[in-house]
Amino acid sequence: MSQSTDTPLIQVTNLSIDFWSHHHWTNVVRSVSFEVHAGEAMGLVGESGCGKTTTAYTLLGYRRPNSRIREGQVFYRGQDLLRLSGKALQGIRGRHISLVSQNPTTALSPGLTIEAQIIEVLRAHNLGTSANEQSARTLELLQQVQLPDPERTAKKYPHQLSGGQQQRAVIAMALACKPDFLVLDEPTTGLDVTTQSQILDLLAQLRAEQHMAMVYVTHDLGVISLICDRVGVMYAGELVETAPTRELFTHPRHPYTRGLITSIPSVRKPRREKANLLRGYLQRDQFPDGCRFAPRCDFAQERCFMEPQSLELVSGNHMAACWRWGDIKLPTVADASVNDEQLTSLVGGSLLNVENISCAYDIDRSILFARRKPQTVVQDVSFDIHPSETFALVGESGSGKSTIARTIAGLMQPSAGIITFEGHNIIPLVKARTQEQRREIQLIFQNPDASLNPRQPVGQIIGQPLRIFFDLTGTAQRERVEQLLQDVRLDGSYRNRYPDELSGGERQRVAIARALAAQPKLLLCDEILSALDVSVQANVLELLRGLQAKHHFAYLFISHDLAVVRTLAHRVGVLYKGQLCETGQVEEVFAAPYHPYTHMLFSAVPSLDSQTKSTSVVRGDIHDSHKHTACPFAERCPWKVGDICDEVEPPWQPTSPTHGLRCHIPLSELQTREVWTEHPS
Amino acid sequence: MVLAFVTLLIVSAFIFWTTEVLPGDIAARVLGRESTQEARAAFRESRGLNRPALERYVSWLAGAVRGDFGSSLVNDRPISDVVLPRMNNTITLAIYAFAIYVPLTFLLSILAALYHDRLPDTIVSVFNLIGLSMPEFVIGTLLIYVFSVSLGIFPVMAQIQRAKTFSDVIRNTTLPAMTLAIVMAVYSIRMLRDSLIEVLDSEYVRMCVLKGLPRTRIILFHALPNAIVPALNTMALNLAYLIGGVVVVEQVFAFQGLGTLLVDSVAVRDSPTIEAVALIVSAIYIAANLFADVMAITLNPRLRRG
Amino acid sequence: MSTPASVATLPWPKKAILNWSRLPFTLRFGTIILSFYLLIALTASLWAPYDAAKTGTGRPFSSPSSDHLLGTDQLGRDIFSRVVLGADDVLFLALTSTLVSTIVGGVMGLMSGLLGGWIDQIIMRFFDAVISIPFLVLALLMIAAAGPDLSGNYWLLILAVVVVYAPRTARMARAVAVDLVTRDFVTVARARGESVLSIVWRELTPNAIGVLLVEFGVRAGYAPIFIGSLSFLGFGVRPPTPEWGLMISENRAAIISAPMSVLAPAAALAVLVIGLNLLTDGLSRVFGRTNKI
What we know:
Structural class of chain C: mainly alpha
Number of helices of chain C: 9
Distance between the termini of chain B: 19 Å
Number of helices of chain B: 13
Strand content of chain B: under 5%
Largest interface: B-C, 62 and 52 residues
Helix content of chain B: over 70%
Oligomer: heterotrimer
Radius of gyration of chain C: 22 Å
Structural class of chain B: mainly alpha
């Protein structure tokens, strides 16, 4: 991208912001300075609570009501947005600087149609005089963001659109007045990978067409690599490193950036060795006077704790806020010496066997209204899990992954099929199972906020299964609780804390400890990493693998994140609309021949390795198609053969004793369709 | 709709049961404890009280549907003759009160929400708290004290039955209507204010601000319609309160409405009249709730089907 | 009808409850007011200058003096004594009735929400019906049903309040229960095979108690007005009990000649209700939820 040398479009200087909470000001952004030139895309990356979103909002001259700008300026074309009058800001917002916010569902006004919401922006900024002109512009915008059937979509209310479509509508709204600067706040978080990939394509395309400058806020370095020219890494309210995107990924200088990069699991290459992960987690009041990263840093010296660091020029336009950047060796990206602990027990009998289960939900259970047809969410799914094995189920939201876990846990009655556990047919519902069966299968949920009772201290939460399954009480129970806490690398004193006194990662560890307390043979993990930050995620991943090595239990690991699955799983099943379309050893599934859907999922995953992306093959949206087709993927399939896909159920084609996929396309042909090769590092 | 009718049916059964079945021997109560067995028996005979309760309920309900509530135990007049003019009076009062209440609620809650945690909000909150702490009969009495006794603008007694012209009606109903409006507003201002503050804090309102929309547009087109929905139920509840709970206010102003009729009937234990009033009032409440649901659906497209 | 969304997301106040100075201002102020009233209610009989029912302690409608701090009423009774002695009855009636209805309504609502199915449907249909009878009308129905012999009986009044309040509280509690049973921690408990009672006790009750406490406060704040209104209409406590609503009703005509006879009980009532409302507001702040009636 062209970098103009004249005055930057946006210039942030020395910005510090405080939040008012618990009766005092807490600093959330400290001395942040950066600039964005016309047409340039800058990424702001960091973990939750690092101040990236707060910083981004000030680029629109906005601050939250309970915050204050302690110092600093935000210049847009020479005017300080933080000191402009409300009227003047009103003229700039939406006109010259637009926002695409994180959650389109809450960002769109629920009571107005898409058209009305776009037109009001045009009207507020006096663009398009007549109603006709405004409608025409609206349609043009909706076309531009590639919304299907713009005329009808324009008349729809936000809730009638899927998440991806809503985000497109928000983007259309942001583009309405042809702004020259766009602020994007995690615009694809919360969307499925395939949808995310489509939105990213759209943004890249729009940027090329309209030559807008952007600030793209995200926690996902992979996304940054696809869309941004330059990246700023934020940690604890400070900008710790800025560099051109490639430079940052290949030569990170700040220890935090390094840790962040190594934390990211890659879908492209398996990484099973213990990585150089970020450790620890700091509360705001634990920051030292000097570098805020010092307590977590492997390179920290006494001086780091005393003196605050400021951005220093490393080379060209690469800056890092670490005075030791020169001493720090570049990360030695471990060569692919995969110490793959090959499964030895595969030959043995399976622990869990799921045979042809189908599940359906009753939609309406009211007694006054007629029952509607139950909706089938899982159809004819079979797989097995061996002892000490990790079997992963992958799929987008709505694919039926969680339903399968709930069924195995006995919380739902399958409408058909058999589940056997250790050779015994287990009764579908939990009430009827034996105590032993209940103990041996444990569940961990995605969101530890919801799965831990907020009114119980950690000791009681973990103590509960001990009491029920092992009759442990009193001191014996307490000792065991402390031991379990140590197993998940938490201090024994956490016993007395309540869940809301813990960080997200700590809460998830407690949830894991609770499951371990039962000494299970099978752990059902339902998206247990997706609510966590990357670095925390990496640590929990390590923990999960360590625990498995120690206790030899099996995981049913449910995730939408292919990279995580690749890191952890031994075998994988790919689920689409409640049907398994491919299963096999992880290396088999992650290599050709692919099922078309698996292929689409892979190509949708952004990765640090891929500088430019092949044109996306992603089409449609899992929620869009409601037509019943013999192959559930037929409508979105880029390789669709023809009517046969709609009408004839595709055959199951085994490629090896462990791998198979369900498709009409011959394996020999699928074998040739490969999009990416593994990068030698 | 179906639900509303089911509810109304249960209500009617409940009312009938409490007034007719629960108290035991109605004859003894009407004729007094000293009445003879023969007189009581004759009374029961003439009133059809010897029939089983269920049969009596069905015939009562059938009558009620046609507007025939039977006749008063006290003076034998058909109840509908007594109730209808009272109902008219109360409805007049209710409409007037609502006309004061709605703008008052909207103005004050928007004001409070806009200046959240600042002076106007505090003033509104304090007034609200004071209003909340005072029963209707105190507010009514104070209003009489100020407007009738000290200023002499309005009459002490709201004698609507004597009012001939429209201005007479206004003169006679302003004070009770004001009392009702204040009491209702106190509850809904708090509700609407909280709801507005929540909506004003929402992401889509922030998005509107960041789209550069004018403030008035944001409030009128984005915040208010969404804030009203949760507040609507309180408003419907208020309407019911207004129709039924006017009892106290009518008593304060000696207003000839349904409320005073109910109080008088309870005092003389005229059960058919009590039943009639209670049933009418409950029906109005249920209708108001239905109306609120319909309003919520029109305001909130998410609740629409399809 | 809308149900309060996600009512159970309240953080547990924990140690905050022990730290007086960090509690919300409204909670502290409300607590002070309520304690003050409780103190008066418990001790007034020891120091009130006159007996509440004693007539002719002075000239009827005399203005405040050193003998009669707030003057006298139409029967020459001492208003000050009647107001302070009334605290006892007012507090007893309001708090007892609200407590009973919160417990009855809370238990029924939680059970109904947990059990679900047709039992839930029947209970809730019936409660909905009771709720749709405006509360004063409902109370008058109860009083009419009870007959003249029981008129003014405290337990009848309490029963009337319970019949009015309990269904409303039950609906609230049910919404909480319905929200809670879908939570993952309840799912975890169910997957462990715990009994329904154990789930109610260990998982639900600690989460529902905050909401019920706030609900109790809201109702308690209105109870004195409710009971006062009944007295005002002549169906509450019977003269010469020094109940504030009744006192206002008795002296209303004399508001010009002896304003204190009306204003004093009105103020006593108002401050009590303000105190209870502040307390509730504070409680709901502690439980992290804005107060909605």
